[in-house]
TrEMBL record:
Signal peptide stretch: 1-23
Protein's name according to its UniProt entry: 5-hydroxyisourate hydrolase
Organism: Pantoea brenneri
Residues at which substrate binds: H36, R74, Y139
Lineage of producing organism: Bacteria, Pseudomonadati, Pseudomonadota, Gammaproteobacteria, Enterobacterales
Enzyme class: hydrolase
Quaternary structure and partners: Homotetramer.
Reaction(s) the record says it catalyses: 5-hydroxyisourate + H2O = 5-hydroxy-2-oxo-4-ureido-2,5-dihydro-1H-imidazole-5-carboxylate + H(+)
UniProt entry keywords in alphabetical sequence: Hydrolase, Purine metabolism, Signal
PROSITE patterns: TRANSTHYRETIN_2
Keyword Hydrolase: yes
Stretches assigned to the Transthyretin/hydroxyisourate hydrolase domain: 28-142
Protein's job: Catalyzes the hydrolysis of 5-hydroxyisourate (HIU) to 2-oxo-4-hydroxy-4-carboxy-5-ureidoimidazoline (OHCU).
Pfam families attached to this UniProt entry: Transthyretin
UniProt EC number: 3.5.2.17
Gene, per the UniProt record: uraH
């Protein structure tokens, strides 16, 4: 059985593509925004929280995208794939009230909006949320 490197070399030779041409291809752009929710009561990731991404345009917030945290409490690509990130004011809104209601728990914060500024395109922004029913903390992660 051929190793993966040998198999790749065989495919490249068969198609007439050189390894240097493949190496020169730009890597796929990483999504500029990800979020992560951790439950401070359990120390575990929090799956099932809806998160909305909005951009401030003049005096209004315009919804760009939304998603739901996975089993690891993450949304790894929240920024719309068909849009280019630009400098400006954005916010992510964690819909915590819906999550706690589904889990028959009370919470003081039905939504947690986190406003932030994107300073330059090409950077990655990661917004973790440390969550409990009556408190939260957030910061710029990496």
């Amino acid at each position: 059985m051929k190793t993966s490197h040998a198999l790749i070399a065989t495919v490249l030779l068969a198609t007439g593509v050189s390894a240097s041409a493949v190496a020169a291809q730009p890597a796929a752009a990483k999504n500029p925004l990800s979020v992560h929710v951790l439950n401070l009561q359990t120390g575990q990731p929090t799956a099932g929280i809806e998160v909305e991404l909005d951009q401030k345009q003049q005096d209004n917030w315009v919804k760009l995208a939304s998603g739901v945290t996975d089993n690891n409490g993450r949304i790894s690509a929240l920024f719309p794939q068909d849009k280019t990130a630009s400098a400006g004011s954005y916010r992510v809104v964690f819909k915590t009230g819906d999550f706690y209601k589904k889990n028959n728990q009370k919470t003081f914060f039905p939504e947690i909006p986190v406003e932030f500024n994107m300073e330059a395109s090409g950077e990655h922004y990661h917004i973790p949320l440390l969550l409990s029913p009556f408190g939260y903390s957030t910061y710029r992660g990496n």
